[in-house]
Amino acid sequence: MILYKKKSLWNINLNVIPFILILVMMSFVLPAQERDVFEPLPPGHIYLNGYLQNDIKNSLIHWNMGIVPYAAFVDIFRNGRTFFAEGEMWGKAVRSGCMFYRYTHNPELKKILHKTVADLLTTRRSNGSISASPVSKQPDGPGGDLWERTYVLLGLERYYTLVDKDPKVLKAMIDEADCTLRQIGPPPKINILDQGWSPNHIESSTILDPIMRLYKITGYKRYLDFAKYIVNQGGAKGYNLIKQAYNNVPTYKMGGTYPKAYEMMSLFDGLIEYYRVTGDQYIKQAVLNLFHNIQKEEITIIGNGGGDQPYHPDVYGEAWDNTHFEQSNPNIKRMMETCAGVTWTQFCAQILKLTGDPLAADYMEKYIYNGLIGAMKPDGTGFSYINLLDGIKTNIHGWGSNFRNLTITCCNLNGPMGLAYIPFVAVMNSPNGPVINLYNEGTATAKTKNGNSVKLDILTDYPRTGDIKIRVSPNQPEIFAIKLRIPAWSKTTILKVNGRSLKVKPGTYKTIERKWSTGDQIRLHLDLRCRLIHAPHGSNPSGYHFVALVRGPVVLARDQNIDSNYNKPVSIISKNGYVNVVPETPTLPGTRMQFRVPTTKGYIQVEDYASVNNWNGTHICSWLPTKNNE
Prior knowledge:
- This protein is an alpha+beta fold.
- Among the domains are: about 430-525, Sandwich (Immunoglobulin-like); about 530-630, no CATH class.
- Strands 6, 20, 21, 22, 23, 24, 25, 26, 27 and 28 form a ten-stranded antiparallel sheet that branches.
- A hairpin with a 2-residue loop joins strand 3 (about 235) and strand 4 (about 240).
- Helix 4 (about 90-105) runs parallel beside helix 16 (about 410-425) and helix 14 packs antiparallel against helix 15.
- The protein is globular and about 70 Å long.
């Protein structure tokens, strides 16, 4: 079906002419902005293959271009929701689809997105809103009206920014935002903290993010004023989350009884956009404090966080729960919501762009190679709602519904967004030249400090091995810098440029500034010795001591599918904190890596965490109990 055709000037719909004029004016008026340290490559400037590309491909083809019921999601706005926040589904599906389009420029995907956006615009209500609530019931707090509008705006903004700058889409975004501004605000309007379904209504303030994005598109002062109103309210009813973050309140104590991980980071994503425009250093410090506190207090060995025990048993494993310290607690039944992990990835990407801190890339890598692809169904047709480190790893049960016998949850919809972020951050630009953050095989075209193109061919089977070769091909010989992330876990990294050795420091970027010419080669060998990690004890009541095996960024685990003694105590043989694991041919199809691990009673088999397939109800053991509390 032909979705686009040329029109003469005289056939233009007169209703969109004012918005064409807006686009022209916006090209001359741009909001002030704090400059990021790193910038993503432009669309179409990177292509990945190797270890992660198949995951991206499976999700794109089998989910976003496959079974997602876009028309049914639009009908939620046409016919009304059947349960709270159901209207979030459309925006989440479209947002990840637009990010995949940014990466692939797939024409069939563009047709799918164009069709569903056009369908959504037919649901606009008389007051300009796209809402699952009739005008007479707006704003509908218990129904999740503002949260749904957040995702309508995010979906439309991603489409407008990444797929098609259609004036009708911009008009719909403006109308949606303006309707919200008429309804929410200082008295006599309704306070934003009185909207929402959760105890502290944290989810409603996340509309800050799309409002700031719309402000940066339009320059309309009313949107910045509304953003300031949201910020001044503090983000949660009865709790100023921004002040709590600034004062380094522990994450699991923020927001009272509902420190919901996913929504809290979504709010702080919006605060980063707010900081970029205002330059408010208080906001920046609050954001950075939250990032570091999440990293220290919440993130587990697979890169995600949140749980149900011991602090928040009623929040379904989706709240901050001091999870870094509690992760081996056998009383935990639900933990590490995929929505939280993906939003943590987005938050880390924001921190990486804002500050150039390699720690943010380290934590993205940890989640991508473990929690993210470990939550995806092998064929890409969905994601687990939560993940466990021990027990049945995957679990689809949580918020969601069935559409034509297809189970749709928030995590099914958010998981693909995590995958779409991989090419977004793998290679970036800095003012002095390209930055390589992730070492998946691929080709990228970046910019030198003078704005010229340089092609980078990354040749590797990482993380199976730590050997990485990078061919550098600038358009012309030129002095510029290439930054390489040296992971904090790589203690004995070897780096050579054209055979000449360079010193590096773990947990930093190595900046190589020189005159680069086509044919220059970087050889990097990362230290993939398997590390023996001792569990933080937390409030673990079992009496056992637990250890984990981590090889580079990849967690290794025992799998009941190949080992009936998967959870029995063992005494692992190690030296100076390292274990001599031996690669094996995988027992099961689809397993990426399998190793033999020496113990005092012989060898045990382990796989990479992501490959362990518990969709059949079998079990995993990531924290291995040791004999005699060794």
